[in-house]
Automatic annotation (TrEMBL):
Residues 23-222 form the Metallo-beta-lactamase domain. InterPro entries: Metallo-B-lactamas, NDM-1-like, RibonucZ/Hydroxyglut_hydro. This is Zn-dependent hydrolase. One of its GO terms (molecular function) is hydrolase activity. Keywords: Hydrolase. It catalyses: 3',5'-cyclic UMP + H2O = UMP + H(+); 3',5'-cyclic CMP + H2O = CMP + H(+).
Length: 288
């Protein structure tokens, strides 16, 4: 079931749903303009959020920004008919997608080419009721490279290109006056183009960038909004892990042993599953 929430005076959200890989969508509402963060994975996804905003009497979005090109964030774009801001690579990739004739064969070919994954194909089938010819992709029309600020009247959204392992075009959106940082999927591991991976250099650089904002609330697209304390507590474990990988290289046993001792785990206590998985991703990210 879709779940909606006004997370602050100026920010409305539709939370992520995991069944068909819907990320969260957010509307940042200033005195004179509303910015939509991500378009959704389909017309149905987009329409559900638009209906909620309408019902709340919120000023409808005037402009949209895409955090990166992945289908779940961008395929709802056409439903909104809005000026859309995107990083240059996001725009290039979506231009390519917009030229495709979408159907089961096309999606099958994209899976074979590792542009998307089998899991993505299944999520698309579920979201589009089994009919992939219903997919409509449009390209964004406001393109930036490093930074762009959007002034909404009393609120400024700073959009910044950060890249990283998950997608080469990842951007974050900082709502300055509220101290809320939307991370998109930037901190996640890579999901396409071969085994899932994290590279230590990219991951640690990205953490530095994120920490430098000193945000009060942080929102990952497939998670829930969290306080700075919660976020740092969670992410610090990955930072420790990345540093052990720098130290030990391709020696997952040594990485795990030292990570366990840094986390203060007792001998009979299992390493949390997400970290055990992440060790594998970091190993995949090491140079051969
Ligand atoms: Zn993504």
């Amino acid at each position: 079931m879709p779940e909606f929430e006004r997370i602050s005076e100026h920010i409305y959200m539709m939370h992520a749903e995991h069944d068909t890989d819907r990320p969260m969508l957010a509307a940042v509402v200033g005195h004179s303009r509303t910015l939509l963060i991500d378009g959704g994975n389909s017309s149905a996804h987009a329409a559900a959020f638009r209906d909620y905003l309408e019902k709340e009497g919120v000023r409808p979005p005037d402009v949209m920004v895409l955090t990166h090109h992945h289908w779940d964030h961008s395929f709802g774009l056409a439903e909104w008919s809005l000026p859309t801001i995107a990083q240059k690579k996001t725009a290039e990739i979506l231009r390519g997608f917009a030229e495709l004739e979408w159907n089961a064969d096309t999606v099958g070919r994209l899976v074979a080419e590792s542009v998307i994954s089998e899991r993505t194909k299944n999520d698309m089938l579920a979201e589009y009721g089994g009919d992939l010819t219903r997919i409509r992709v449009e390209e964004p029309n406001i393109v930036f490279e490093r930074f762009i600020d959007v002034h909404l009247g009393g609120l400024t959204c700073e959009i910044r290109y950060v890249g990283g392992d998950h997608a080469e075009d990842s951007c974050v959106v900082y709502v300055k006056e509220e101290g809320t940082l939307f991370l998109g999927d930037a901190l996640a591991q890579s999901v396409y183009g071969g085994p899932m991976k994290y590279t230590t250099g990219k991951f640690l650089a990205l953490l530095d960038t994120v920490f430098a904002y000193g945000a009060n609330v942080l929102v990952e697209s497939h998670g829930r909004p969290v306080s700075r304390e919660e976020f740092y507590g969670d992410v610090r474990r990955y930072e420790l892990l990345a540093r052990q990988v720098l130290r030990h290289g391709r020696n997952p046993e040594a990485v795990e042993t030292d990570l366990r001792s840094e986390l203060g785990l007792a001998e009979n206590e299992a390493l949390p599953e997400d970290l055990a998985e992440a060790i594998g991703y970091f190993m995949n990210g090491l140079e051969k």
